[in-house]
Amino acid sequence: MEEHLFSKGRTSVARVVDDWYIVATSSELGKSPLRTTVYGIPLVLFRDGTGVAGALLDRCPHRNAPLSLGAVKQNVLECSYHGWRFDTTGKCISIPGPSNEFKEKDRRVESFQVHEENGFIWVYATPDREPPREVFRFPFLHEQKYTTIQETLDVRGSIHATAENALDVPHTAYLHGGLFRQSDGEKNEIEVKVNRLQDRVEAEYIGEQRPRGVAGKILAPGGGMVSHFDRFILPSIVQVEYRLGESSHLCITAALTPVEDFRTRIFAVMSFRTPLPDRLLSFLLKPIIMRIFRQDAAMLEAQTETIRKFGGEQFQSTQADVLGPEILRLLRMAERGERGGNQSRETRSFHLFL
Ligand code: FES
Ligand SMILES: [Fe+2]
Predict the structure, then answer these.
(1) Distance in Å, CA 47 to ligand 1 centroid
(2) Tens digit of pLDDT for each residue in 237-253?
(3) What are 307-340's pLDDT values in tens digits?
(4) CATH code assigned at 31
(5) Is the shortest distance between the CB of 35 and ligand 1 below 6 Å?
(6) What is the residue with the minimal CA distance to atom 4 of ligand 1?
(7) C-beta of 79 in contact with ligand 1 (< 6 A)
(8) What is the pTM of this model?
(9) Residues spanned by the domain of 211
(10) CB neighbourhood size of 314 (10 A)
(11) Which terminus of the chain faces fewer neighbouring Cβ atoms within 10 Å, N or C?
(12) Residues 106, 169: one domain?
């Protein structure tokens, strides 16, 4: 990248490869192989004859043909160029013609552990490794009292920028003015408790009023107390949880996948419990949520483009930028293979349009 007068020459990209990411929903992976990337690394996903999903590096060891151009034949993935065949563990199980000059390890493909559960296909991002941890489990997914909306969305931004955006409170009154919060009227004194744990950080907002925009009115028509938590969980889970009044509970959880360093796929699970009928609630809330999302996606793209133009980024944070620096700290630690560290709590107070 060319040097720029104002360039900081750095970006907040962290590659946490020793963890699980969602690469597709179960319904996206049918009989044909599916091509995707994690941190820009090409992968091929496919199901063997019994329906079990596998993930291999998308490169045939014979002549570099993408295996994703192949097809599943007799239970295994067949390369479309010369017909080498691979099982879900990456083992080459047949080569047309003479094959005894190859050692088994030279003709196998790096494979990634796959875990399919609740309609999501997860891949552990380091090949040929036994994962030391389990996949994240979405709360409320199958709880009867909750309505759940699932969405898959793509944004042009790093994991750090996307996670910060999802959990950032101060922008909501501006970028989404009127939908959720608004920047006219009075600011409120707000207190935030920041709780740092081994693999996560949580912000709890104290003294928050019901958001004055339309979404708040739909969720809690009678007003009432608000309890609000924002969480980031390694490697890339973001969660916003609201309790409004007596009977409304809303928990939006998203697993972010680093398709490339500056491209993130968001697998969102939004669960609601409110006094309103499910269908009415989905009907009212979904357009608002999607509008908020489009505003965020446009801003992330604009930020990414600015970082690209300047060859790097700059950050000047205030007390109100609660989770962005914490997320980056966790990502950098995890990238170095250091999870854990000191647990701590902190309380901050500042004025905000809330
Ligand atoms: S490139 Fe795959 S079989 Fe030749
Ligand atoms: Fe937003």
Answers:
(1) 20
(2) 999 999 887 778 999 99
(3) 999 999 888 999 889 999 999 999 999 999 998 7
(4) 2.102.10.10
(5) no
(6) 82
(7) yes
(8) 0.92
(9) 147-352
(10) 10
(11) N
(12) no
